Prior knowledge:
By secondary structure, the chain is α+β, with helices and mostly antiparallel strands.
Amino acid sequence: MAAPTAPNSASSYTAQQYNCPFSAAMTRVPIAVFALLVTSNLWAAGPWTDKSYKEWDAKDLHAVLYHSPWVRRVSRTKLDAPEGELPGAGPTSMEYQGYHSKHAQADDTTTTQFTVRWVSSRTLREAWARKLALQKKFPAQEIDQHVPPAKDEFEIAVEGPDMSSFESAREATLKTKSYLAVESSKVAPTRIEVVHAKDGSIKGILFHFPTKSPAGEPTISAHAKTVIFVERGAGLDVDVAFHPQLMVDRQGRDL
């Protein structure tokens, strides 16, 4: 007997846990497969498929920017330096989840949260323009002119309220220790951009990846089910999975 289907909703990014009466049957289904099935159902519909981006309201934008197939939110917890020890001298680790500020979990630990977005997608480029339109930065009828143009590369952005872990990382290190894992291949970035805030602190990191191999083949095939973004250059173990077959808007696949 098949497992029950989670309700359609864009309100939750990660798959929820359900009280399943079919536990015996579920033990025969790999947890990762079940999680993907539930997540697929949660992402089956949303503003990106239900309406034109020109009709998105603030709630729609929030769903696109935080709870859509183009966004991953994870968090890392770091152990604060013991008393009397210089900050950063002790072991640290962090996980990525959201756009929230830091939360102290215990006296010696802090959780820092981040957002990883596939910003080269048409959906997120349209969300950028729609956000500006709702802020009345330009006349609504001019919105098409403000959608960033598509580029011949994939772009993934990592950002969060506390990017201090990236302060000491060199761009060359970030580049050599990050990649996209696609099927059995690893796709290295062509370049890295570190974006700074007005006060000089790091606001975000933009990773650029090629859409084609040196031989001219697509780096992400039409059949690819999972693309894992990996970043190791800042001393963090960042592994987030995107699912191209779910990254679909009203016009089709959108990377």
